[in-house]
Amino acid sequence: MTCSSLISSRIWNTTIRKQVFNHYKRRCFSMKVDAKQLANLRKQTGYGLSLCREALLENNNDIKVAQAWLDEQAIKKGWQKAEKLQGRKTGEGVIGVMVENNHAAMVEICCETDFVAQNDFFKDLVAKSTATALSHRKMIVQRGLDLGGTFTHFREVLLTHKLNEMKLSNSDETVNDLVLQVVGRLGERIMLKRAVTMTTEQDCVIGRYTHGPFTSNIDGCQMGKYAAIVAIQQPTTSNIGNEILATLATSLSQHIVGMNPSCISSKDTAGENIDKGEMLEEQYYLMDETITVKELLDRNNVSVVDFLRMECGEQ
Asked: Residues in domain Translation elongation factor EFTs/EF1B dimerisation (predicted)?
């Protein structure tokens, strides 16, 4: 290419860029953004004012279409950020717990800072991810019942990549899509660390408890830095009311969060050298240290079937 043709090409490219910019500028001035729609869109999505304005301009002030456009941009931005943020430590986060009848789910999602851990969009991600895990557990159980199976106690460690691929309720988006949206919004590495689901017999009750910073309850998902669920069972001859049983299950979950037992009793040690202080039944009851947990269970004629405790950030 000659020098003159190169100069002509640069002038032409500069002219084209100016024309495109002027066209966009004229469009921005000719089309007004509805101030109320702009304020609502910013509040609902958490995106910056300029990006929300662009979304409304691109979509004729249609707030629903603009929100979908923003979510698409967030996923694209999230992919780019997620790649750059790989390797960063995620020592903060929240554990979500949901219980519905005889089903339970517990999901831990980690982030880099406590600032993000208490963000509403992050908590919404935890709530929706936990609800998705619970729905999966219920579907598996129902499928088994339809094939003639029975309602038995079962705990499942749900692989994180499997949960990431699951679709959210009433949506074509997956859990991973939502993760990427939140990464795009908040700019931190966010990681779905672990997920566990539980189903127990119909004569059992599942209790739950969460504790620590950022505790909250969103759409039935209880959250905190520490969490526990416990399944307790009463004999068919027992006359304890369901309300009393549910209260007992909740207080036992609180005890488990505080005392961190490693097993129920010596029957579950499988030959391991575990100190009595680590056995749930041998520990003094957190809410009444004059009795042991075993004495509490005997008084109420119930037994512990299973329990699970999580602490956010533990290895």
From this structure: 104-276
